[in-house]
Design goal:
This protein is an alpha/beta fold. The protein binds (2S,3S)-3-hydroxy-2-methylbutanoyl-COA.
Amino acid sequence: MTAINDVAKLDFDGEVAVITLNSPPVNALGAGVRDGIAHGLKQATANPATKAVVLVCEGKTFIAGADISEFGKPPKGTSLFEVIDGIESARVPVIAAIHGTALGGGLEVALGCHYRVAVPSAKCGVPEVKLGLLPGAGGTQRLPRIVGVEKALEMTAFGEHIGAKQCAEMGLIDALVDEGKLRDGAVAFARKIVAEKRPLKKVRDLTDKIDAAKGKPEIFAAFRKANAKRFRGFEAPEANIKCIEAAVNQPFDEGLKTERKLFMGLMTGVQSQAQRYVFFAERAVWKVPDVPDDTQMIPITNVGVIGAGTMGGGIAMNFLNVGTPVTIVETSQEALDRGLATIRRNYENTAKRGRLTMADVEKRMGLLRGSLELADLKDRDLIIEAVFENMDLKKEIFGKLDAIAKPGAILATNTSALDVNVIAASTKRPEAVIGWHFFSPANVMRLLELVRGDKTSKPVIATSMAAARKIGKIAALVGVCPGFVGNRILGQRQREAQKLILEGAMPWDVDRVLYDFGFPMGPFAMSDLAGLDIGWIKEKSSSSTMREVLCEMDRRGQKNGKGFYDYDAERNATPSPVVEKAILEFAAKKGINRRTITDEEILERCIYPMINEGAKILEEGKAIRASDIDIVWINGYGWPVYRGGPMFYGDTIGLPNVLEKMRKFEGQMGAEFKPAKLLEKLVAEGKGFRDLK
Ligand code: T1G
């Protein structure tokens, strides 16, 4: 065994040389790994006895791509192109032995090899598009030559990880070897192809799969059309498609040049910077500085949910989906039956769409028990309350839970706005109380705000974080304040949106600006979808807001075909002349002189107060880091990932611009635009949110 460098070693199994990489955590293609492969290959092929080379990795995975943390830094060591060219032009066959995930540059290295073997549990993919990039080391030119143009379009433009079995069916993997016997299986495969004198199969030389697509531009047109909605606003998917087109229409080396040009265009662009930022933000959000990794965890073997309404039902499904038994408690048999029936219907609908079997449905329903007795939660490890948003009701329930729940149980509330400390104070164990703020539909929305009370213990926080990860959520730990992080910031945008339609804009103007910015929907279309009459009480209605005025006009939203918009039978929205007239009258009644409002003002007044509120949240310590706020808004409120989140966006446009506009608006419209101290401090220091530690 020869150490090539600190992350690569070389040994020989008879006539087969084996290069082993070991660069935790994911064998990313940093300079050491690139040098290790290149130098290892040189040494291996310099030995005349070598008849084949196997490239294998130790640790949890094969190479999971280029080292993203190296991007933007001066290149060091052997370039990835030299590594792959070296492999492809080797005098003996090179075999990639894949376990875990061969992703991005890792799959491109494997595509440079003459053969690929994998264990069945392995996965392959080119997820660069999720980083706002494309496979920039020949992947867009080699992949279609192996898997065909259609598959290559899906793999590059969607970026999903594909199982080894399916990869073998596509011809991407040449052989599957036994789990746990990867190295031996790869060496045996190498011996077999040497014995059979199989040719040095260079992927770059394969043409049949791309020839099949020559003169068929309709393949690309159809793919673009079918995914236009999904790719809206993103730059990378189109660049990936163009590269696959180049693979069909250009010679290999010309296609490589096209790939390089498009890659560099994305790499230096803001979208990829944003999406790379989000990649690391999604990993940082789990880290709570004062809750160390070795914090004692509370075993969660079962769960109790109080309330079988829309939220309670969705919450229960998250745990049933991962095999955790749930007892759900309601106050009446009718409400309980309705809740249980909704859960079963949701599962059966998923089964109808082929994403679950009926056996899966029965297995999940088998883990669910309904009850009318809070006392039936006495053995629960985690209890999540999801009842009506009323403080007295929540305090009463937590008071009762305190007497019922076993010692050490976690008592969680799904409140979206109420003070968790006040709820905790209604028990003698406030250290066990924490907010678990799910987003509707709770079994679908990925975001979870975990709300840390003043007395919430570290084991309760650590356990909640781990449980959130287990049910497939991304959890941000936030502090107790009105609206926590997400809704608190939403309040800023909603306030300005409501004001803008009185001052001169129309709801469809505000929605268009935010839709074009990248949100899936604007605030007024969103209100129509949710229903304008949520929380509206006819008897108490006083035409004090446009929302009340519309409800009084029996405009409830999509559900009755009229809200801020008019809706046709297919729920397509059109601006409403009735609403326009109502807004003009309402503004006149309020004595507001309407004026022309630019799209720029709409955007700035909706977005800048959000950034400013984020700064206040940070200065109050209600969020651990700026990127957590971005994770909340990207995963819970539809902020476009290619803009990185409100805080990253603030840094992108420059905090001095945000501050200048906030001060201008403060001067024109009042204290609600008062700049946060942190914003003023960062600008004074010439820093951004990214500089906050
Ligand atoms: N570069 C640098 N660090 C990485 C990394 C990478 N490619 N992948 C993971 N890490 C770090 C991560 O930040 C975390 O660090 C730790 O590893 C564990 O990751 C030329 C341009 C492989 C499926 O997009 O999808 O190749 O937080 O928590 O859940 O064409 O990591 O512990 O300090 O995610 O088991 C393309 C990215 C790159 C794959 C493992 N590759 N990685 O998931 O662990 S671009 C990717 C993943 C490229 C070429 C182009 C996942 C994983 P820390 P983790 P996991």
